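Narrative progress, year one. The postdoctoral researcher (J.K.) led the effort to move from monomer predictions toward full complexes, under supervision of the PI. The following entry was the first complex the group processed end to end, covering 650 residues in total.
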Amino acid sequence: MVRKARRAASHGLIERLLAEHTFALRRFIRVRLHTEQQHECDDVLQDVYMRLSQIEDLPAKLAGRLDTTRNYLLQIASNLIIDRARRAQARKQASHISSNDDDDEVPLYCEVNSPERSLANKRKLQRIDHALQKLKPAQRQAFMLHRIEGLSYREISDRLGLSVSTIEKHIAAALTSARHAIAKEEHDV
Amino acid sequence: MMSKANANANAPHAATASYWVTRLYSGEMTAQEERELQRWRLADAAHEQAFEEALAVWDLSAELYRSGSESHNSESHNSECHDSENHDSGINGEISGDIANEANATPAHPAQQQQRQQHATKATKAPKATTAPQLWKKLALAASIAFVSVLLAVNFVPTPTSKQPVTQTVQVPTSNGNKTNAETGAPANTDNDTFRITHQAAQMPLAQSRVFSTKVGEVSHIRLDDGSEVSLNTDSTIRVTMLKEERQIELLSGEAFFDVAKDANRPFTVATQEQQITVLGTAFNVRQRDDENVLKVAVIEGRVAVQRRAPSARQGTDTGTSSGRDPAQNSTPTPDADAQAQQNSQQSQPNSYTEYLLAGDIGAFSDDNKIIQAQQFEQAQTSQAWRRGVVRFDDDPLQDVIKELNRYRTHKIALRGQHTKDLKISGVFHLKNGDAILDAIAATLPVQVIKDQEHIYIAAK
């Protein structure tokens, strides 16, 4: 009974959150999926809703985020989109393999979690890491604080004492170097 | 920037792609930017490829911490602030760097640690995945790391009063409901300069007023039961009255930030001595200080209308609820009603005005003057940094910096000597760091800090 009441309150909160940030979320989803299709955005938003409703005591969590609620929502949407893409790819691979091998038991994540893939990813990550080490400390810090610790640009700005636009430039520069490091590897291979 | 000798054909577009990915994840991409990006992606297949590749690297980079490079990670998180390049910000990274490093080495402040601990615990408990277990796990882990790391930056407590053993403070609240009581009850010993952030949830019966206030050095986040959140800065007081047709707040003193839950049928108004602010959107900061004699309104999101309160209404109900009967000040948040309200107020009160502020605008209102600065997004954001216990300065005179810091202190700092006042300082200060701020100032400027039993002075060296 009590549990039910808390759930209901939480759904009210989620609806409010999504309503409040709907434009930013939809924009983010449209760009990530590269689509103008309303229903595709709706699907992802639905997943975001589901995800949020699985989080226990959401208000307390959000209280810690203060004005970075939106970044939190985007991060959730981002993870869901990546997850969808990987599943879609895995499904494609699975059906491809099964048509060749008549093997119906191919797990959904076979490609995603395959040793080859993790090895390739690991090598790429090492490349990225190596590239980041060569950056200016502030650039590397800004990038890591955002990508690993999930801080918003504003929070990083407060932390490092640099303006938000500088933080954005640092992160973009770090991404470009990481990108070059991987391109270089692909070129070498 | 990088050696591009071996990079592939998309290299020229990589920087642009990075720019767009970074913008996308800022959460602040505008409709116009979206159109620009869309045009850019469609203009050339190489653009699209560069963008997709940048996104792929971006996504992959989230896994850096578990790729066996942990040693690098920890190193890069908490060191080398001194090397920060400050070319286009003009903000000095050294001060915050010093404080952050000191903070890393010291135990947590009780309330903060408890709160963070709670978040961290919740975050790791959260995943109940049905679709993709490994991703939930990753997200939850990232979240808990974020909370812990915030803790590191803000909990340096140098005052002798808080020398309790650390173990005592690490308690994970057992149930969700206990949070409010535990935290509002916490700051019993207020006679020190320990900065603290408290949380409250307010049950507001209809038509009853309730006063909330903060002590010096306290920031309080108050969640009203309509879903709005009010943050009160140090030494501030508000009165909240929830009516059926209106949500009325009076800012009696100090500074407050409002994140307003949308309710078209119940306007949210904030009354100060001189002005009434009607909220047409969501989040904004209001600052009214006696010694400044100026009301400052900074809008972070949405739109607000600021109206001068009629002198008669002001005198009549100085301490009571705001002039709710006046139709000009009771506008519903529709454009027509706004326009109407504006007309009415102009007709009936020659001295009055209605000023509309949009996101990024900062308005300063005094008796005989008003200054609106449009599109000051960064400054508007900075105006609410105190909610996280942070104050930012950008080439500000030491005099102003000390004045601002003193707002949070019972043990005030005084400046000695004429020219010390005008020394300029930049930096980000975490209020929890207490007197470490003084050390940072002494290390940066040609000044010394003199402390005796009752006073703290800053004087020329």
